[in-house]
Design brief:
The structure is a homodimer. Chain A is of the alpha+beta class. Chain A has 18 helices and 33 strands. In chain A, strands 1, 9, 10, 11, 12, 14, 15, 16, 17 and 20 form a ten-stranded antiparallel beta sheet that branches. In chain A, strands 8-7-13-19-18 form a five-stranded antiparallel beta sheet, with no helix packed on it. In chain A, strand 14 and strand 15 form a beta hairpin. The relative contact order of chain A is 0.09. The model of chain A has no long low-confidence stretch (mean pLDDT about 95). Chains A and B meet through strand 22 and helix 13 of A and strand 22 and helix 13 of B.
Chain lengths: ~775, ~775
């Protein structure tokens, strides 16, 4: 755990340079706009600890699988998020002395991520090896308003000397991924071009043959006056640069305005890349930095208007939640149904892939509530379009007749992961895909989605489950062997309660929807059956039997559901029995020891109780929470949020707040010692859920918003907005009352503390707290 | 399955060249002498399919571990059997046209492995691209009598042309391993020297810094007269060669006699390597090919005298069993306690390591019965000397207080394997180490071994088991979670019956021996306790509790032991239910499908019944055999032999013979399509066991030999010898009678078909069969 960042409501601030934490800061101060993004690397040269990272959404590399012992079914490759061309680079040299903070003494240094405006700023005064002092101020952003564009303002002032200042703005695609399996570079050069004040590199990814044109156009201003300059343009392998020599007197300031653009073959034909990139850099250049910045501020103001959560009386908590919301919207804006939410977003290259079940289980509710429903719908369409690949994935494992297994990790729908206990066995992910359809429709009321897309996915998933269970003569029940539940600290177990439960639910939900759609649009239904060769009578007959008679472990004495067969046979220690020096256990224990232990990585039975809360009475949920939570080490960033929601539901306010603290500032405080690899983007949505579903107690019941808020003792007040079926509702909670305001033109009825109350357009209801 | 080799009682014969099977032939025709060995590569150049392999016992390379996802406890490296200097090479060129069978038309070709004499022979008439015909005859061996030496006789006759024949004997250490993880070469050059008729290369292994000096000395004979010749000696990187040009008339024959030696720093100090290698090549050169060959024949005659099994009336079976015995003695002679029995011996580089539990479970009985007891004892001492490493291995996994876990795969005692379900979980191997001590002492009567070495190993193993189990409050018994049994088609299971049983047996056997030794040599016992900090009272108290109350799954209704918890919950198909096109399942099914299926790779419960036969009545063994064998796919080469022994015990003669056929010619017929990687050396000992323990029914009971032979219907007769406590007994079985002959000077009593009969020195007893 680190504590070097200044607490502030809207800004992330690093005062004084922390070189040993630089890779952490690079992750935390990352900027992006959904289409491109980058770590907070420095514009000028830096030879210290650094992970160079600049990313273009949807552009990936299929890195050949690395595995010790091959098993049939493993994928050939792992789709890696690609480190793409560096477009921020500006080399700075004074009479040949290159500015490099790793070699300077710093008199002052400040790095600021202004989340309100979406701008990364940095300023410093450095004493170089020669003893000369220089001041630099920089400001940059990835434009949310014009997502092909990035802009930099970079000012240099020699404080106590006159000099020939050489500035070299450049574009460099000769970059590599640090986690390349076979130590290769992933880009080939296609084209380079460089002019007096612009330059372009087109590079192509190996194997996947994506092309990206990265371009720049820049101007120089000296002491606030435009400078006319000559350049020395240089082309190198996958790199272009323009060096300009400027005579500078002591105290004078040179400002570089560098405008950059990334255009990929995802959005432009290959033969148009260069032209489109020039159009973009020209457009940015013409508008200029101030105009672009004004548009950026406005775009972010709009996002905050929709998605902000305000917390009063706890600056650290306020900063934490805003940081999470900010990073989520930098990663995924919902504008493109081909994109998804990578686990590290644009903040690092680790894990690769872009899509995990995190999207459906954790991120979807955030986008459902804070953005127009098209955004969440695009996340669903993404999976719909990958259904064929999911059917192929299942076929590779021996499933047939259109059964689908969605991948654990993917970019295009093909499975990328290669650990048998995950790839082949952590199949509960299939349930989350189905649950997301349910969640989306329940939230938006968009029944048409089911007819057009949803049912086809559900049938394919149901087919998978029906083949994946088998009938045990010994138990006289359907069982499911050889799975890994959400708690990955157990592998290859039988009858994982969560997996069996969600499998049963999938079958039941599919059956219900088949019945409904058959009735509503019989012709469309018939056409679907024909197309996917669905023999309703035969198949659903088996499904019904499974629904009625699948094994779900329960211990009567303890009054709990059994995580999987044999779990209660373990030494039933609690987390409090652990030596703190051995935590986190995944950094101290061998894998077999973790597997044999009782300790749980993240919610498993409790994940089911969270998803299907309405199926259980409060005492059942309490008994399971009391049994499982004390055995949970929360070593997944996705763990605490579910526990906040359940603890809040159970009125365990202190527990809920304790869990909340573990998730809200995970990356800001580098809680797990791994933020240097990038931020935990998907778990950030969990933090949002913890506030809205946990503290706010927001649910959807009977097609209405339901609220049962509580407020942590430490907070003076908090508020959030949610979008619901076209309306916008603001919820403000303080220690004495809750105020619910309908900001929209739509009349609503809401349930507040179990009471149904009308909430007409523009009206406000107020209730006392502690109900 | 292939069928291109000629059936012969003493020889393996390939008539006509089979280039697509060449890598299989290279494996099958391998030669070795326990200290060095090699695949049957050609002496002359060959650009066709080929796996070059020449190996020096005990010289290995620790190849950096390759793994997809690292887990705590994985080893840093995997010890690879090293492909070492090629010492057989003789380049042959006629007026510059290089002889290369890949580019020739073959008029005739024969490759013969003469197992009786330990000689590899080859002869061919080839038409080269130029249309000229040449005849070659070669003969070579690795001397069993002088194990530093190899010798080659290589004759070349241009049949229909006169020519300048250039022959180039060479030594080439610039070789690589095909299965290198990171595609590096493992050898560096230390020194090269080349003279008129000799040459030497000293190469050093990276990381391990073994040095090996490989040398040659050669002479030439033309038309049976020694030839005086000039050479062009050449030194290259890690290579030396001598080219000799000889004028040859049509029909004349040039014979190259090439003598080679390998001397490693395992046996000579580094500064002596060259001198020792020269001494060896000089010695061989002086003796000459015929004398060396005579010694070779004599040494092999002695081995066969001890270890041969004769089968009459079934040439294929006779060839199969002799091939297995021959390869075992080529691999391990027992002369050096630092060496062990690699899974591929000197026939390939795959798997690496030298030692698996195969040694104790399968190979030990072979060496116990066919060689002086020192040989088996050396196999035990090997493990004794690695006890410290076994304790370190266990400590890496969190075990303490001197608990030992012997590695799954090793060279030096350190674990090399890196699959968590094997490395951390296939811990039954520890039981086999203890069982080998028991087996050795029961066979040899060498009680002193227990006092000097055995008990220390047993205590360390017992300590491991005591920590590996835990007490289940639910079951009120000790349980063992998270293991992989001998059947590797199940991973991470709880309460594997075999593992729990052998763990209990280890504890019990250790307790008994503590009691005995404490009584017999109290001072030595006290000293041991002191040295290993063994607190008998505390530790054995816990052990006794475990012995009395460990969970051993049993199904009353089926009357069988339960392989592991949940096994009977499976879909209990039989192998006959499988689609033959999907076999072997490990080449057709994804790993999860294999895991979920009922199908068993190799004996698991039955392995226990084989080891502990006397603990169970026949009906129990029969019930378990009848339940498990029909569900066993025998996809491990170690599987059929145990089933032969049990089937024979149960009087299931046809089943026993059917199983025997699967093991005896496994490599000769390339049953599993993998002989090209090398032969299955350790499973060959299983074949020997199948005959002696299976058909011969040999056991040790009450310190006496026990025999209950049967004879397969297809065989006219078979016979074998066994050494037992200084005596040698020959057993001859035909369809009507069994004859047991005491060939030694020691009087014995034996049990034949349950009758105790005296068998004095030199005497013979005869009994009718079908008892």
């Amino acid at each position: 755990m680190k504590n070097y960042l200044v607490h502030d409501e809207w800004k992330i601030i690093e005062d004084n340079f922390h070189p040993t934490f630089n890779k952490i800061s690079e992750s935390v101060f990352s900027i992006g706009n959904g289409r491109m993004g980058q770590r907070a690397n420095f514009e000028e040269d830096f030879t210290g600890e650094c992970l160079q990272g600049s990313y273009v959404a949807g552009v990936y590399y299929p890195d050949k699988t690395k595995v010790g012992w091959w098993k049939i079914g493993y994928p050939e490759y792992f789709a890696k998020v690609l480190n793409a061309a560096n477009w921020i680079g500006i080399r700075v040299a004074f009479d040949g002395e290159i500015l490099d903070l790793a070699k300077c003494e710093l008199e002052s240094f400040q790095r600021v991520l202004d989340m309100k405006r979406g701008v990364l700023e940095r300023s410093f005064v450095a004493k170089m090896v020669s003893g000369r002092k220089v001041k630099v101020e920089s400001s940059r952003f990835c434009s949310l308003a014009d997502d092909e564009i990035g802009a930099i303002r970079y000012s240099i002032t020699p404080l106590d000397f006159s000099t020939v200042l050489a500035v070299t703005p450049y574009i460099d695609a000769d970059v590599k991924n640090e986690d390349s399996n076979y130590d290769e570079k992933f880009w080939d050069e296609v084209y380079t071009e460089v002019g007096r004040q612009d330059g372009f590199v087109i590079a192509e990814t190996k194997k996947t043959a994506f092309q990206v044109c990265t371009g720049m156009k820049f101007k120089l201003v000296k002491n606030e006056e435009d400078l006319y300059f000559d350049t020395h343009p240089v082309k190198e392998e996958k790199k272009v640069s323009c060096t300009v020599d400027v005579d500078m007197e002591e105290g004078e300031t040179l400002t570089v305005f560098k405008y950059a653009a990334n255009i990929s073959t995802l959005n432009s034909p290959a033969d148009q890349l260069l032209a489109d990139c020039k159009t973009a850099t020209d457009r940015a250049f013409e508008q200029g930095f101030e105009a672009l910045l004004a548009a950026q501020e406005q775009a972010w103001a709009h996002k905050w208007e929709e998605a902000d959560i305000r917390i009063e009386g706890d600056v650290a908590a306020q900063q934490g939640i805003r940081f999470n919301i900010f990073q989520l919207y930098q990663t995924y804006t919902g504008a493109d149904e081909r994109l998804n939410i990578g686990p590290k977003g644009f903040t690092g290259e680790k894990y690769g892939g872009s899509t995990y079940w995190d999207t459906e289980a954790y991120c979807l509710p955030f986008y459902l509530s804070t953005a127009p429903s098209e955004v969440a719908r695009n996340l669903l369409i993404y999976r719909y379009k990958q259904l064929d690949k999911a059917i192929e994935n299942a076929a590779k494992l021996g499933f047939k007749d259109g059964a689908a297994l969605y991948p654990m990790v993917t970019m295009t729908g093909e499975e990328c992961h290669n650990e048998w206990e995950i790839t082949f066995e952590e199949i509960h992910r299939n349930g989350a895909i189905a649950y997301a359809i349910y969640d989306y429709i329940r939230y938006t009321g968009d029944q048409e989605y089911m007819e057009t897309y949803g049912l086809e996915v559900l049938i394919a998933i149901a087919r998978f489950w029906a083949q994946r269970v088998h009938f045990s003569k010994q138990k006289n029940q359907y069982v499911m062997h050889g799975v890994t539940g959400p708690n990955e600290y157990e592998n290859n177990v039988n009858n994982n309660w969560y997996t069996n439960y969600i499998a049963r639910w999938c079958l039941q939900y599919t059956l219900e929807n088949i019945a409904a759609i058959k009735k509503k649009t019989p012709d469309a239904y018939e056409a679907l059956c024909e197309r996917i060769k669905f023999y309703e009578y035969t198949e659903t007959g088996e499904w019904k039997k499974i629904v009625e008679n699948i094994y779900l472990g329960e211990d009567q004495e303890l009054g709990v559901f059994v995580q999987h067969e044999g779990f209660l046979d373990k030494d039933l220690l609690k987390v409090t029995d652990l030596d703190p020096a051995e935590r986190p256990i995944n950094q101290h224990w061998s894998w077999d020891r973790i597997l044999r232990s009782v300790f749980i990585k993240q919610a498993d039975v409790l994940q089911g109780l969270y998803f299907f809360e309405d199926d259980f009475d409060e005492s059942t949920i309490r008994a399971n929470f009391d049994f499982y939570e004390p055995r949970t080490v929360h070593e997944s960033s996705l763990s605490p949020c579910v526990h906040v929601i359940l603890a809040a539901y159970l009125g365990m306010e202190e527990k809920a707040y304790e869990m909340y603290l573990r998730t809200a500032r995970l990356d800001l405080d580098d809680y797990n010692n791994d933020t240097e690899d990038g931020c935990h983007i998907t778990s950030m949505a969990g933090t949002w859920m913890a506030v809205v579903k946990g503290f706010g107690g927001v649910r959807i019941k009977e097609d209405q918003l339901f609220l049962r808020p509580f407020i942590p003792k430490k907070w003076a007040a908090y508020s959030f907005k949610i979008q619901f079926r076209g309306s916008v509702v603001e919820v403000k909670v303080d220690q004495s009352q809750v105020e619910v305001v309908n900001l929209s033109a739509i009349d609503l009825q809401v349930q507040l503390f179990d009471k149904k109350v009308p909430l007409n357009s523009g009206s406000t209801i107020v209730e006392k707290m502690n109900q």
